[in-house]
Amino acid sequence: MVNQGRILTGHRPTGPRHLGHLVGTLRTWASLQDAYRCFFLIADLHVMTTDYLHPALIKQSTIEVIADWLAAGIDPQRSTLVLQSAVPEHTQLGFLLGMLTTVSRLERVPTYKDQIQALGLSPSLGLLSYPVLQAADILLYRADRVPVGEDQLPHIELAREIAQRFNQAYGTTFPLPQAILSQTPRLPGTDNRMMHTSYGNAIYLRDTPEETTRKIMSMFTDPTRIHANDPGHVENNPLFTYLDVFDPNPGEVSGLKELYQAGQVGDVAVKQHLAGVVNQSLAPLREKRASLIQRPDELVEMVRAGTSLARQTARDTLTEVQERMGLDLSATWRKHEPLRDDPTLVGAFC
Ligand code: TRP
User: Fold this and answer.
1) Is the entire prediction scored with pTM above 0.90?
2) Do 31 and 172 fall within a single domain?
3) Do 26 and 158 share a domain, yes or no?
4) Which atom of ligand 1 is the closest one to the Cα of 133?
């Protein structure tokens, strides 16, 4: 039953989704759909803050992400899928919220500091304002809960601060959004670093069972173990992190852990078992994905329908914000201007 409030969360379309996304966010999102009114955002404008030079890539990634989301159980009948760039209210609200946010506050956001180090370039205004746009994403739909990974907590904190400042200045308008932190441990990549599209260590939802098996067979294990009959370590060993997540039979996993610690089972045997378990667990999702990706027009149509529904809410919120901020003429015009189907929505994919 939908009664516990509103959720907004999203991903940047940076490429196909991998097992880290599935375990860290998508499974949680799918499970929240019964209890909450959910908005799932494809944050394509946020991609621009670090890469605006690859238009073909962003288009392709958007389709891949939609297919992955739906295959993982995001249900467009119950939830609303929103394409950020097709709802101009995101940028409009972001601009206005920028008035309530100091540059020095934004310069202290940890993700920004990490990005400028990685970039080695002079950061753009767009990058600095990344979390303000994210606050606008959340506040536009008056979401009270935001399921995210730990790295996003500073952004949710900033969104709360901005909401609070707005409410104090203009009267209560926004609920103060709260994070719902992912409960599952972070899934490592095949090299035991964090799984990341740009590290070449990811297993993708769209990978074939053969590719998956190949990647698992090349996976990092216990570096202290030289021979198959050396006693092995299971802590911080990605093979067992994966088994804990994917093996439906916990008794079997504890048995394997004991054998491994006693040096009675080799890495290859554990990997073969793991590959079977992962492929079996992903089979239904992959079947659904393969069929969805054949019909990109239908995928686009689902997002178009969600986006046009979302836009009505976005318009109402922005109108109220404009009124409260004294931009009354714009607010009034907006009220009387009919909502037309937005051609940019279709244009984004053609
Ligand atoms: N910054 C988020 C990420 O990189 C994506 C995102 C954009 C988002 N807007 C959001 C997440 C609003 C939650 C709420 O993963």
Assistant:
1) yes
2) yes
3) yes
4) 9
